[in-house]
Amino acid sequence: xxxxxxxxxVAALAWALWSNPDxxxxxxxxxxxxxxxxxxxLSVHGSQELWSLVLLVLLVGxxxxxxxxxxxxxxxxxxxxxxxxxxxxxxxxxxxxxLTAPAVVGQLYLIYKIGGLAAYVNALGWRVVxxxxxxxxxxxxxxxxxxxxxxxxxxxxxxxxxxxxxxYLAHLLIAIALGLLSGSRSGLLTLFxxxxxxxxxxxxxxxxxxxxxxxxxxxxxxLLLGVLRNVVRLEDGELSVGSIGPxxxxxxxxxxxYGVQPLEILLDADELKLAHGMTLVSVVTNVVPRDWxxxxxxxxxxxxxxxxxxxxxxxxxxxxPTLLGEIVTNFGWVAGIALYALIYPFLMYLLVLYYRRVxxxxxxxxxxxxxxxxxxxxxxxxxxxxxxxxxxxxxxVGLFTTRIVPLLLLKAVLDLSPRTPRGRSDLxxxxxxxxxx
Length: 437
Hints:
It is a single chain. This protein is mostly helical. 66% of the residues lie in helices and 3% in strands. The protein is built from 19 helices and four strands.
């Protein structure tokens, strides 16, 4: 069965590339993510049940590629960048920096609350415990990537001066610093991956080999950061690196098992302990501080870790159950698998419809409004694909509070309204075919 599933994955990727040459389409991102986060299944002695569950996840990607093939977006018609003479909204750069300030303030408050930079760095491995009660500060800090991506995407919509990009570089360095201080590998590394998507749709199509090279670099960086996060210490103003033992190596390479390990745990359980839909309710109740409501519903990761691992880390860390695992822990095997097979493909179908609407507009309209519309789509794309190996509450709440809200706020303060894509006769020059890099 393992050979058949591997062959199906390769065939699905080949079909997706042949039927829709856009390498950044939803199906490509889903299938590549599936490959990375489920690769570890090859190293375990998985049962037929485990392989069947992995196959179910893969079939969602196969269906997504079929959705794209039914009606792919039109070929891009790219106008020379110097001919896009959309004026920047008034106060654009000032607003971008002003909206960045709360993220910096939130991060500085976290460092202050923990007891200084040294204590903060040493507490990153226990941030689930240490940051309790200051969710507002972590949320503010997490808005930085969306604002940095907006800065970058708007910069791509027209020819920019050296001073523009110098200011953006300073903004990017702050975003990288906050990403490192967050302790989250995904929060930092997805910034660069999403930059690639913005460049791909707003400036020039990126070739497959360059995209795969970036993916390999980011994956290696994720593995390295996974180890360093647990061995680096800051004492008396000096950095020290502890020994890299088997435990840290397991944690780093666990990236390849993110989609597999939770399913193994569920299959090994003597009986399922069901949440009866309450982890999904936590999407709404999670905004209430636990000090105000101590018995509020647990999120999917917290419930899964408590009930299926015996609270292995004492509340200091939690396993993400994956979307399939979370639905099963709420409704059981039969109803859970049936609901997953209905809900996730439907969500991916809606995503493909969104993709077909936004990408042509980004190709033709130009300007800050089109850039932010595209970025909103990229954020939704990342969330829907990412929930494959995450939990529902963290994905949904994070999408709205740290991505959509900051971008809509930026759009509102700049008084942007979507532009209607213009025809060829509206631009001072003939269109150029899309370029690749």
